[in-house]
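input
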Amino acid sequence: MEVPKFLLGDNTDHPNSIFIVHTEYPRFIINLENDEVEWLEEFSKQDEEELANETESLIEAATAFYDREVSRYQE
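output
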């Protein structure tokens, strides 16, 4: 099965939250309501430094994915 790079998720226990799941390394879930990120990987100290540089672009890509999905739904 081919899994998309991003998945959109919601949960009735969190009615105001919009979750984006990034399925490729580094895997994470971002809550667009508050930009909280939950990493699904364990990182070494060296990885953390590299990840800090990449995090902003990953979050921007997740937000762009959400905007694209919402625009397609509204068409």
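quick obs: The chain has one domain: 6-74.
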